[in-house]
Predict the 3D structure of the following.
Amino acid sequence: MILLRAEPTTQDRKAADELAHWLGQMSGAEFAIQREQAGQPAPARVISIGRTDLLSQARLPRAGAELGKDGYAVAVKDEALFIIGGQRRGPMNGVFALLEEELGCRWYARGTATIPHRPELILKPVPRVSVPRFDRREVYGNSNHTLVGFTGRIRRNATGVSIQTCIDRLTPPQRR
């Protein structure tokens, strides 16, 4: 299950949607997204996105890291995986880093995806904090504005394109 706080940010919601979609593409399984509710304990095996109560209870050192706008942290405690992101693109950057670096997903061109088929997902994530040194990460050209969803997947950001535009245009491509 993917867990969000009771009132998630737009970025956390979109990161959870993307993670559920791509994990489903890999495994054929459905990954439920649930918001925290007072008094209900989280399941033992969970992927927590954002600053959930579960994250606060875990007391992880990386949870307090300064992530800036686009940074992210990945942490593990017991059977819970935590993806924490900065205020702008951080949650999505964390999700796409996990999918790419730990699970082998690739997005080489707009409208395509190379997703490994894994009926059983076994994940041993590397705990880390990653904060981009540059506020802008882009290749000059008109494609930045026409390929906004794709550039989000490869963790670039386009000058003059709002985070909401990036979120709106992240639609799953056809699987290859």
